[in-house]
Each structure stands twice: as C-alpha cells, then as structure tokens.
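ARCHIVE CARD
SHELF: 3
SLOT: left
DATA:
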Amino acid sequence: MPAPTLVAVAHGSRDPRSAATVAALMDQVRAARPEASARLAFLDLNAPSVGQVLDAVAESGQTHAVVVPLLLGSAFHARVDLPGLLAAATARHPRLQATQADVLGADPRLVWVLDNRVRAAFAARGWNPLHDRVGIALAAVGSSSAVANRSTARLARRFAAQTGHPTEICFATTQPSLTDAIQRLRARGAENLLVAPWFLAPGLLTDRLLAEAPTLPHAAVLGPEPLLAEVVWNRYDAAATRNLPLSA
C-alpha cells in the first residue's frame, strides 16, 4: 500500500507574508522526505481549501490522507472546524480515509526554536540576559476556549523554567493583553523587555502586537524552520500508524 498523503493545514490569513512563510515551511517538509506526497491546504482566506485538496487526493486515486494541523493550540479549529471538513470530504469520497493528526502544540522542539529566536533578539540588542534584568512577554493568538488559553499559559511557565527569564503570557485576541504582560514584568523588576511571538508566521496579529508595543524589540516568529518540519512529520507518523478520531 502506498504511504498516506500528507495534507498540512494552515489557518490562512489576508496577509501575504503568512502564506509565504507556510509555503517556505512546506518546502522544508518536502525536502525532508522528497519521496513522500505532501500537500498544503488552508482553513480560510487562502487557497487551496481543505476540501479542494482532499478532493484532489481522492481523484488522484489515493485512499488515505493524514491531515496535520499547522496549529499551535487545540481549540475550535482543531476540535470542530477541521473534523467537520474531513467528514464532509469522506462523505463525498467514500473510499478516502482522512486521519487527523494532533496539532503541533507546545512540542519541546518548538520551545527550543522559541528560545533561539529570543536569544537572537537579545544578541541584536547587545543584551546579556544574565545581567540586564530582561523580561519576556510571550505573546500567542488567544482563544475563546479558556482551556486552550490555560495550556498556553503553562507553556510560558515552562519557558521561564527552562530559560530562567521572567516570562508573562499575553494574547493578541483576548486577555491578558500585551500591555498587561508589560506591566507585570515591570512590577517584577524587569528593565529590558522583549516580545516573543508564539506564532508560526507573521501576519495581522503580529502587526497588532507591534502596534501595541512599538518601542519594544520583538523576536522573530517560529517559522520556517527545519525543526518545525521535523515536528510535522512526527505528527504524520504518529497518526499514520493509528486511526485517530476526527475530534482529536
């Protein structure tokens, strides 16, 4: 039996930088396994859509697709939106099996990438994190799901424990805001503040964070990054060997 087709699903954005970053990541994904079939789809705002890509997979004669959400959190898109799209595609194509993999999440390798982005931003400013009383505002998208937001907050605590830097979580779309995080870091004695975006790609929300704190340095986003491509394939491998429920 041929290996399942990888369908990597990104959120989508009106900002062309986002799609360009995801496309560059997919180049790294394909380079890691040139013999494998890997396609990119978007949940919204960009083409091709998830449905279009799964239709193309089925029409090519493939009978199994492993769908990897390029998402850092498991909230509405991973738990409701994407499973519904997969169910609709398999209803259209009864011979097609669509297995949803886990989200990328707070994988330790991505936390390592985040640490590298922070270190690079420190170096660009000439900061010595051991002596310059730095504080990190770890900025994520945010969700309507309190459970998802608490999971991201745990990431901030893990990052602080790993790096030793005072770290406060904040969100671009909900509370606490970046301004809240800055105030908390100042209250903790941090003098040099850095915004660390927990985002795969730049876009409208990272611009919103820049506008909220234009005088602070902002580290680079996570992608594209070969380690990120490695995580994508790890999620694919795990799902390909077991039939995960669509609501995973």
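SLOT: right
DATA:
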Amino acid sequence: MTDSLAWKAIWNTVKFSAYYIVPTMGLGLILALIINSGVKSAGFFKGIFFLPVVTSFVIIAGIWGWLFRGTEAGMINYLLSFIGIEPQLFLSNSSQALAVLAGLSIFKVAGSTMIYYFAGLQSIDRQLYEAARIDGASSFKIFWTITFPLLKPIHFFVAITTTIGSFQIFDSAYLLTGGGPNYATTTIVYYLYEQGFTSLNLSYAAVLSYVLFFIILVISLIQRKYLGQESNNY
C-alpha cells in the first residue's frame, strides 16, 4: 500500500486499458462490417486484416519501433514533416509512449476481434434487415436498432477478453521501452516481472499477482452485470 511505484504501475495499466479496449472493439467491428458488406475480395481483406494476429509479436514490435522512432529517420516523423510538425519522441516521451504501445496492441489483436464480430454478424437473421428496409429504415438506423443490439453477446465476450489482455500487457513494454521513460510504461505485469525475476523478490511479486487478479475480477463482474445479461431484442 505504500509502494508508490506499484500504484503508478496500476495507474499506467488503467490508462493503457482506456487507450486500448474501446478502440480495439470499435476497429474490430468496423473491419467486420467491411468484410460482411459483400465487398469484392472479402476473403482477401479478411486475410490481410488477420495477418498481424498470426505474425510474431517480436516482428510486429520491431516494425512499430521503426515506425515510431523518435528521430527524423522514423517513418511517422518523416510523414509528419510534410505537414510542418516537428519530430516527436514517441517512445522516449513519457506522455506519448503508453499511447504508442496501446496502438501496437490494437494493431496486433484487431484482426481477432474482427473475426468474433464477423461471426456475430453472420448469425443475425437476414429477415430483420429485409423488414427494416421495407419499413423505410436508413442504413444508420438499421445498424443502431438491429445490428448493434443483437451483437450484445459478442460485445460482452470481446470486452472481457480485451480487458483481461489489457491488464496483462507486458511484451510491448519489455521489447520497446523497458518500462520507461520515467516509469511511464511500467505496467503492473511488467513491475511484477521486475520484482519476481530481476530483483528475485518472489513474495512481493506474488502479492502483485493477487492484486492483478482481484482488479480483473471486479472489472469482469461489472462488465457481466451490464453486458452479460440476457435480453430480448425482438
């Protein structure tokens, strides 16, 4: 309770979750809607969107590190120079590094989230869409009154899995930032790793693991209360 670095690690993990969960769900749903819309070469796009999921995280992290290199040689800084923005430090900036790591995780797992949503879209009865079109409903209204509510079980599943994944984030911080700069990317799992396997303080690492478990449990129960209940949308 008196370890300020442990509290910082927990707060960093919470911020990472805020950067990660909703964008991952939103991007996965958008990609699923694209391939479910009947666009040509849908199978090809499905493979392209899913490719990061089956690619080694080390390779993805290496590419991400090159893209967000904090010099003019970095690809993102090179592109920003065309619109007059000075080179950003990104992974070396304590206010930007965590968001960059969240972007890496979103890019990595959005393809799997897409598959979950795509399966949910395929299970929706097409007669509902036909009836809505006959009644003159717009595409936007059809989405918000039919598609989005009927995907509630998928929302719940994806919210649970992304939340658990966000609180277990370790590999991107380990590979790209080493918990820095100034502990800005030290998450609770990374801090647990340092305590247990670097400092060999195994008992304290065990305490941190219990803290992590209870945080995930409480958040999962809250999500179950609001997203996991059965509802009749017809």
